[in-house]
Amino acid sequence: MPKPPECSIPGRFIRNIDELASTRQRRIVLEAIEHSLRSVHPCTRIPAAVENLLLPENSPVYVIGFGKAAYTMTEAFLSIARRVDGGLVVAPAAPRSRIGPVRVLVSDHPLPSERSVRAAEEIIELLQEIPENATIVFLVSGGGSALVEKPCIGLEDVKEMTRMLMLRGASIHELNAVRSTLSCIKAGGLLAYTRARRIINLVMSDVVGDNPCYIASGPTVPGCMPSIAEAERILASYGLGNYIDLVRKAWAKRPKPQSPPLVTTRIVARNLDALVAAKDFLHGRGYSVSILTDRMRGEAREVAKLLAGVAERLGENEALVAGGETTVTVRGRGVGGRNQELCLSLLKSTLDLGEKPAYVAACIGTDGVDGSSPVAGAIVDENTAVKAIEKGLSLNEFLYTNNSYGFFSLIGDFIDTGGYTGINVNDIVIMLR
Questions:
Q1: pLDDT tens-digit profile of 338-391?
Q2: How far apart are CA 142 and CA 426, in angstroms?
Q3: Residues 324, 339: contact at Cβ < 8 Å?
Q4: Within a 10 A sphere around the Cβ of 128, how many other Cβ atoms?
Q5: What class has domain 17-40+271-432?
Q6: What is the DSSP secondary-structure string of 352-381?
Q7: Along the chain (433 residues), what's the average pLDDT of each consecutive run of 10 residues?
Q8: CA distances from 213 to 90, 164, 172, 315 (A)
Q9: In sequence order, what DSSP letters do the residues of 137-188 get, joined into one string?
Q10: How many CB atoms lie within 10 A of CB 168?
Q11: Where are the domains of the chain?
C-alpha cells in the first residue's frame, strides 16, 4: 500500500482566537473549545475505535467514505491500517485528490447536486467491482446525505423538497425520514449494490441520540427504512402535502435488498465525547462544571431563552456545557446559522431583563460551518452588549431577518475556523462566569 499522508491534528482550530480572547474568561472558553475539538478529531478517535477490530490479513480491504469528516476519517484509518486495496471518499472540500490508495471526490452540501449523483454512481460502480470475500470499511459522517445521492425521482424535486423542509425548521430526523423515501441508496439502500459479505461502519455522529440510521441517512445500515406513512405525515405537518405523490413514486422504485451482509457498526465520536472533554478542561482550570445535556434541540431562539436563564444564575467559577442541534425557521434573507442565532438570542434574552450578561457564552458548530455563513459560531458577553449599544444595533432586527452573521461581523465576535474542521459531532455551547 502506498504510504498515505500522516494523520495530524491542527495546532489551532480557531483562527481568530487571539482577537476574541480579550478577557481571561473568553480565553478559557475558547481554549475549552479547542480542547474539545481535538478530543473528537478522527486522528484521536479512529485508532481507539478500531482497536480489537479484527481485519482480515489475507483478503481485500476497501475504504469508502462520505460526509463532512470523511477526508480526515480516511487519513486516520489509513494511518493505522495494515492493508487497504483501494477505495473512494467523498467530502465537501479536500486538499488532495488521493489519500494513499483511496481516490477523493469533492461534492456539494447542504443540497444534493449533479456532483452528488456522480459520486453515488462512482461508489456503486466500485461496490459492484469489489469481490465477495472482501471487507468494506465505510467511514461515515454527517453531511453524507447531500454529498452522495442517487434519487429515485428527479434531482430537482429532491432538492426542492429538502430546501422547503429546511426553511420550515424541520429537524434532522424529519429530514432524513423524508429523504430516505426519495433515495435509492439511503436507509440501507447502498448495501443492495455490493456482493461483499462483511461490512464495517465507522461512524461519527452528528445527530441527537446517535442513531446510525439518521447519520448521513444511514445508507450502509440495514433495517433503517422509515415507513412511507411517516414521510407523508411529516410533509403534511409542514404544509407540503403536494409532495406526497412524489414520495410514493420514489418509494416504488427503491432497489430490492439482497441477502444482507454481516454488518458491524461503531460510533467513533459523538457530541457527548466533546462535552466531556470540555468539562474536563474547565475542571482543570478550577471551574465547577456540569453537562446540561447532549440532546439540546428545538428552535434556536427558544432554546436560548432557557439557556439564558441558566447562564444568568451561574456563580463565580461555575460553568455549564451543552450540546445537540437546534433548528432555525428562516423568515428573513440574512446570513447566519443556528449557532450564531442561538448566541444572539441568548444575549437578547438577558438584555431584555434590563441586564448585561455577567457570563461568557460560546456557541459553535463542530464542523466549522454554521448555516449559510462562512464561520463556525459566535461568542457573547458584556463586551458584546456594550459594542452593540455603542453602534446602535437592533438585536430584534438582526433576529427578525435571520442575519446573525451580519450582527457578529459588525461586532467582531464570530468564531472563525477557516471552514470545515474535519469533525462533525453537532454543536456545543459553553457558558461560564
A1: 999 999 999 999 999 999 999 999 999 999 999 999 999 999 999 999 999 999
A2: 9
A3: no
A4: 10
A5: alpha beta
A6: TTT---SSEEEEEETTS--TTSSS-EEEES
A7: 73 97 98 98 93 79 97 95 94 94 95 94 97 96 95 90 89 85 92 93 96 94 86 95 91 78 94 98 98 96 96 97 94 95 98 96 98 97 97 96 98 97 98 97
A8: 19, 22, 11, 40
A9: EEEEETTHHHHS--BSS-HHHHHHHHHHHHHTT--HHHHHHHHHHHBSSTTT
A10: 15
A11: 17-40+271-432, 53-269
What does pTM read for this prediction? 0.92
3-state SS class at 91: strand
Closest by CA position to 273, among listed 46, 50, 432:
46
d(CA 175, CA 185): 15
For 53-269, CATH gives 3.40.50.10180
Q: DSSP string covering 321-333, please?
A: EEEEEEE----S-
Q: Is 324 left (phi over 0), alpha (psi -120 to 50) or beta?
A: left
